[in-house]
Design brief:
single chain; 5 helices; alpha/beta
Length: about 200
């Protein structure tokens, strides 16, 4: 049986690894990164919401290769910062900053909020899947937590080291398997997997 190809519209290796791991159970699907599919393009995220940005990335790649694609837009929303950094999470601290620099920048913005109960936040993922016929499907999920007072852990990427879970662990302290069980992206991808299985893939 030929395996169906699905292209992940991302160059973020951490994100690609998470998505591939979650889709491992679909044995007749071959997951390729944008680069592996031969798509060399920088896509400008001009949307005003996570959903719009996911759609822009998915639609751009789909129109180039006309194969099923997955794109997601994810970010951290901090209540005390009026939802920032939100869709600007990747470049909140400036262009081309390391994950460590992003975390330290956010912690500095939060330095006057010393009550942990007031440091609530959530991760958001909106995943856009465009099937072989060009139909769009969306899966949006969340992970609730708080902004810790200092980074901890060496796994994950982005703001994982400063995202404190209700169980007292930082997301960056979790293994990839543990993270995928609870994460916003893991939840969204599992919903996609259920959809794909329901449709015979």
């Amino acid at each position: 049986m030929d395996r169906h190809e699905i292209i992940i519209c991302s160059d973020n290796q951490g994100k690609i690894s998470e998505i591939k791991k979650c889709l491992d159970s679909l044995k007749n699907i071959k997951i390729l990164s944008k680069k592996e599919a031969g798509v060399e393009i920088d896509i400008e995220e001009t949307g005003k919401t996570f959903r719009e940005n996911a759609w822009i990335k998915a639609k751009t790649v789909y129109e180039m290769i006309h194969k099923p694609v997955i794109a997601d837009d994810s970010g951290l929303c901090v209540d005390a910062l009026n939802g920032e950094p939100g869709i600007y999470s990747a470049r909140y601290a400036g262009e081309n900053k390391t994950d460590t620099e992003k975390c330290l920048y956010l912690l500095n913005k939060m330095q006057d909020i010393t009550d942990l109960a007031k440091r609530t936040c959530h991760f958001t993922t909106c995943l856009c899947y465009i099937d072989k016929n060009g139909y769009e499907h969306y899966f949006e999920r969340y992970l609730e937590g708080r902004i810790a007072f200092e980074p901890r852990g060496h796994n994950g990427h982005g703001y994982d080291p400063i995202f404190l879970l209700p169980n007292g662990k930082h997301v960056a302290e979790l293994s990839l398997v543990e993270k995928n069980k609870i994460s916003h992206r893991g939840q969204a991808i599992r919903s996609l997997v259920e959809y794909l299985r329901h449709n015979g893939l």
